Amino acid sequence: MTHISVKVDGTTYEDDVEPRLLLIHYLRDRLGLTGTPIGCDTSNCGTCTVELDGTAVKSCTVLAVQADGSEVTTVQGLAHDGEWTALQRTFHERHALQCGYCTPGMIMAARDLLREHPHPTPDEVRHGLEGNICRCTGYQNIVRAVLDASEEEVTA
Amino acid sequence: MSETVEREVGRARYRKEDAHLITGQTNWTDNISVTGLLHLAILRSPMAHARIDRVDVSAALERPGVIAAFSGRDVAQEMGSLPCAWPVAEGTVVPDHPPIAVDEVRHAGDPVAVVVARDRYTAADALEAIEVDYTPLPAALDIEGALADGAPLVHSDKGTNRCYDYRTSDGDYAAAKAKADIVLTRRYHQQRLIPTAMEPRAVVVTPLAASGDFTLYSSTQVPHVLRVLLAVTTGIPENKIRVVAPDVGGGFGSKLQVYGEEVITLMLAKRLGRPLKWTETRSEANVATHHGRSQVQDIEIAARSDGTLLGLKVSLLADMGAYLMLLSPGIPILGASMYPAIYKMGAYEFSCTGVFTNRTPIDAYRGAGRPEATYAIERIMDDLAAEIGMDPVDLRRHNWIRHDEFPYTTIAGLTYDSGNYEAATDKALALFDYDKLRAEQADRVEHADTVRLGIGVSTYTEMCGLAPSRWLGEMNYAAGGWEAANIRVLPTGKVEIITGTSPHGQGHVTSWSQIAADVLGVPFDDIEVMHGDTVLASHGLDTYGSRSLVVGGVAVHEAARKVVDKARKVAAHLLEANEADLDFKDGAFTVKGSPEATKTIQEVAFATFSSHDLPDGMEPSINAEHVLDPDTFSFPHGTHLCAVEVDTETGAVHIRSYVCVDDVGKVINPMIVEGQLHGGIAQGIAQALYEEAVYDEEGNLVTGTLADYLVPGAPDLPEFVTDRTETPATSNPLGVKGVGEAGTIASTPAVVNAVVDALRPFGVQDIRMPCTPERVWQAVRSGKEASA
Ligand code: FES
Ligand code: FES
């Protein structure tokens, strides 16, 4: 067991974990933060994407011990006082989700994308989301949602 | 229809179901945790076919944290065979299908033993300690080979790999063929696909030992069907089992099933008296969740030289995989009536042989039988057009049912109620700029451009609203196809709809609210929709085959009408008027000619709640239920056009534009309809260009993970241009037709037709799906060689 201290969505947790415990399982099974789902076991789907110290990571490829001393943001930490972030709102308005299973990961990956390219082209959005699979939407509405959110940053 | 129909129906309402999904407050089955929860892990066969000589779980049991471990033999006495509900033809061979293999494993991934432990890591680790001795057996790995003399038998006790033979015909095909100027025969292959819902399957069972009650949560599309069949399979009385489908992360048919894992988890939770969870990994999902398609299609079409179709003959070999799942034999038969599609012809012959192979079982995958049929007819129509030198769109025009000929009974015996193929096609051609693209194509040929342009068309129809119970009975299906809706008007005037359908991304909550809001005249936001729990929705037949709206949504509409009828009686009494003298508009009853004499439906609801003053003998409730069993299917249609650029030097295919005009009848929520189309088109393109479940010679699934099985990502797909025409269905009061599978059905042939069209100058007639760069390059090369 290894002791870790990690701040997740604003709350600091102190825990003893097995060294092999994956961050996604730590979040889901230990902290009960089940908003971030698991879609694969080969790091190909991106449903488990969270932010680790401000950068999007696939939390199934990070060990909980690697998050020691870090700050993690999950989809559950985005909305404040019921106010959705721009991407949460544009995903809703553009019907960029159907079953919603990929959505937390998509939103977290899109945040990263917009940090890197605040004004992406549609192609840049598609390439930026390459690591995240959505089986339901055909991506078009996801691309629209991300582009809409990028517009908002300008006007906001 | 009430006068308020346009109020909500037709509006692009944002979805009510998004809020919890977007904020991560989800209720996926794997999220469920209860005190004392144990975890189940499954050891699966590494071989395609082998005798099980010994299973020893004792070393696993010694591991700390392991609670129990069982082999198939340990559990076989308590569990019946997994059910197949659709033995389509007389004499269909239905082999035993134990939830855990007992004497033999029959496909890579077949369950062999299970471990129950205190957490998922311990359970997974303990699988390594189970010892299994196998004697490998020869395996039947491809559809045709499995029927050859002396082929290894998947089920030796059955003496054959032939599951069934099914035939149907109308008209005299031989005579039609004799009259034909041209007879084309083609063989198409439907590769195996892995449905790949993003949420892997999961099951949680919580037993209540004292009363013998069980709650089973499952990421299922079919909680109601599952409950019936769990009871039949396990012997636990149906009324002791509650099945809940919480948030479900996609299905596409793969969760329309009664899976061994559901049965095993239930039985072991009962045996151990402890709550139990099983969550599938993606690698397990790829071998253990059913696959789709997998057919060899031999097609023959007979026509006159002017393009007039005379007859069609279809003979299929359909892979069942190693066992029959719930609907396996029926899937190809769902396509049987769809091969003649939108075309008029005088003769049709269909035959299908179901074949067992040592591979993962095949069952419904988005479209289920209809994409296969549409692919074959739309491919051969293009081949015929090329053969007689006719534009493929003109060939279709020449043969299709004209809009003034509906209702029309096809040679396959289906009566299409309404449609307008001309309108959809004309609109699509205009949006696509067909003539300009054809000119560019010719130009590239003339200049021997290394990058060729190809144009593909697909004018599809499908049968939606899988229902008529009578039809299903004629097809030897065990269950019916009706659907139930309940509407409760609460004392405060808020409304609850309980639907028997069980959505997993389709947006029923929003659409059902729109439907009921219009009929009841109550605000959209005052309506809640509940589903997916057999306690809540006492009966239903769930969600598959684009049936939810056409059966379940129409049931909601009809239940709402019953509520209004009951409310009218109460309102008439309260207003001291005749029922016939009441108008009902925007949620209020008004006495004709006296606008001040009015009662809103909310007031009526409260009056029924207090029930101080009701008509004599009236039951104090305006709640209503409607169980709908439609008389017929619905038939959406559309025209999909795809332009591809094919690099003849690398084989790379790039979709340059994709345009479709679909006619799904009356549209409830255009935003949701468009979303369904996008997702469907993506899955159809995936079949055309990317996806295939590949096995090696040993019968191992080579595409066992998402690293090998290429589900397209955002950069792999184009922008879709979608538009629509609206020809209401005449077979239901809402005029709706269904949309969930349309995109998938239509897009695969449109894309492959485009690829082949680009390469026809090289003598290419067919490319097997998926049209990978390697296959395309090979086709160009062998085409060039042949013509050299
Ligand atoms: S679950 Fe992490 S990438 Fe798939
Ligand atoms: S919305 Fe279902 S996987 Fe993306």
TrEMBL record, chain A:
Domain 2Fe-2S ferredoxin-type: 2-78
Keyword annotations from UniProtKB, A to Z: 2Fe-2S, Iron, Iron-sulfur, Metal-binding, Oxidoreductase
Pfam families named among the record's database cross-references: Fer2, Fer2_2
Keyword Iron-sulfur: yes
Pathway where this protein functions: Alkaloid degradation; nicotine degradation
Annotated GO MF terms: 2 iron, 2 sulfur cluster binding; metal ion binding; oxidoreductase activity
InterPro entries according to UniProt: 2Fe-2S-bd (IPR002888), 2Fe-2S-bd_dom_sf (IPR036884), 2Fe-2S_ferredoxin-like_sf (IPR036010), 2Fe-2S_ferredoxin-type (IPR001041), Beta-grasp_dom_sf (IPR012675), Diverse_Oxidoreductases (IPR051452)
Membrane spanning residue stretches: none
Keyword Iron: yes
Protein name: (2Fe-2S)-binding protein
Organism: Streptomyces sp. NBC_00180
